[in-house]
Write a structure and sequence with these properties.
Largest sheet: none
GO molecular function: nucleic acid binding
Radius of gyration: 18 Å
Structural class: mainly alpha
Organism: Mastacembelus armatus (zig-zag eel)
Shape: elongated
InterPro entries: RNaseH_sf (IPR036397)
Distance between the termini: 29 Å
Strand content: under 5%
Number of helices: 4
Number of domains: 1
Helix content: 40-55%
Protein name: Tc1-like transposase DDE domain-containing protein
Number of strands: 0
């Protein structure tokens, strides 16, 4: 457990094996997906890098907090259980 929370934490914490490079368990991947979908729905579509940067900023600023807190953060328990059930294989997330 070198370098893990268990090596410095004064109390016992339950730990689970975490599959390496698992996008199913990386909430930022889902946030990027939501942001990408919002930008793809822009009308007019971004035509260059500056337009894309502005669209990303606009969509980020107007993304409802509920998208982050409910859709992504609160789904982590289900995501972890899905990975456990599939023994680390790809899930539907």
């Amino acid at each position: 457990m070198q370098g893990s929370v268990g090596s410095w934490c004064p109390w016992s914490l339950p730990q689970m094996e975490w599959p390496a490079l698992s996008p199913d368990l990386n909430p930022i991947e889902n946030l990027w997906d939501q942001l990408s979908r919002r930008v793809e729905g822009c009308n007019p579509a971004p035509q260059n890098l500056n337009d894309l940067r502005a669209a990303l900023q606009e969509e980020w600023n107007t993304m409802p907090q509920q998208t982050i807190s409910v859709t992504i953060v609160n789904s982590m328990r289900r995501r972890c259980q899905a990975v456990i059930n599939l023994q680390g294989h790809m899930t539907s997330y």
